[in-house]
Design goal:
The chain has helices spanning 4-13, 15-47, 52-78. It has a domain at 23-78. It is 84% helix and 0% strand. Helix 1 packs across helix 2 (15-47) and helix 2 (15-47) packs antiparallel against helix 3. It is built from three helices and no strands.
Length: 83
């Protein structure tokens, strides 16, 4: 995949800088997509529910493990390699 901005950045500041910023942008985009997906799951559960507990309990049961894995992945990806 050819990214002109990334190659310009890597040429000016070094490969590590460009890679770190591309990684951060990718992680931000993935977390934004996950937040949007969480809202869509909420709407799906809320569509057929009659009370708040009919919506929130399944939402938490469904999305808590997904967010836990996502946060762990972010910690691994953005953590310092020397630690």
């Amino acid at each position: 995949m050819f990214l002109p901005a990334a190659s310009l950045t890597s040429a000016l500041l070094g490969d590590d800088f460009a890679l770190i910023w591309l990684l951060r942008i990718g992680v931000f985009a993935a977390l934004a997509a996950l937040a949007y997906g969480t809202v869509l799951v909420f709407f799906a559960f809320d569509r057929q529910s009659h009370s708040a507990s009919d919506t929130l309990r399944p939402l938490i049961i469904t999305m808590a493990p997904v967010w836990a894995v996502a946060i762990a992945a972010v910690a691994v990806l953005l953590g310092r390699p020397g630690r």
